[in-house]
Amino acid sequence: MQPLxxxxxxxxxxxxxxxxxLQDELSALDGVSFSLFPATTLAVVGESGSGKxxxxxxxACLEPPTAGCIWLEGKNLVALGEAERRKVRPQIQxxxxxxxxxxxxxxxxxxxxxxxxxxxxxxxxxxxxxxxSCLLEQVGLSMHIATRxxxxxxxxxxxxxxxxRALAPGPKLLILDEALSALDCSVQAQIANLLMELQTxxxxxxxxxxxxxxxxxxxxxxxAVMHQGRIVELGPAEKIVTSPHHEMTRQLLAxxxxxAQATRLAREP
Length: 269
Description:
By secondary structure, the chain is of the alpha/beta class. Helix content is 39%, strand content 24%. The protein is globular and about 55 Å long.
């Protein structure tokens, strides 16, 4: 099986003079490489400032990398012109931590869902409404909320709506940037289970960005640990937990009591 996404030596530097007087450049990404296969989940785990969100923005074509390649099904997104990049963007959808900041507060649920469908131009008015109803059903919502604004929804409902809107263009890759961290534990579990159900039913591929190693282990096939703009450890989720090699991975494990305790118990005779 060929990877859906190949990232090779991705570098992103910012002009440090605007931020820190003593530095000419700040390196947010420093040679990041990995592959992501269809219908699998890679969790990118790391502390704040490790480069996780910058990686998400570069992959979603919202930030140009300084160097490196991003291959999506054999096409190097970095080398594309703006017109070609616009055509690719619907294939990679980004879901943020707080959907309230990414959902238009002036639109109701139906308008939020139908806007990307109208831009595609693939459906007539009746087809757009049927597709919107189907999307809501897929994420566990009802057309009864179609006329509500985002402000009238709970946090869990808003995140489900954000997922539905991201699914509307028929993407090949969903990037979830701390998409569960603003929710309480019970709602986090519900949304995580929803994501796994969608992966099974739709064959979705996820890049799951989080500071929560326990959630990464729960939802992902593989885990990449980031530190200071680099991936310092990459491998199957179970192996990362049971046999960590990098100090940052060990620190993340130590800060996750449930995993640390389970690992200790597993090692006891």
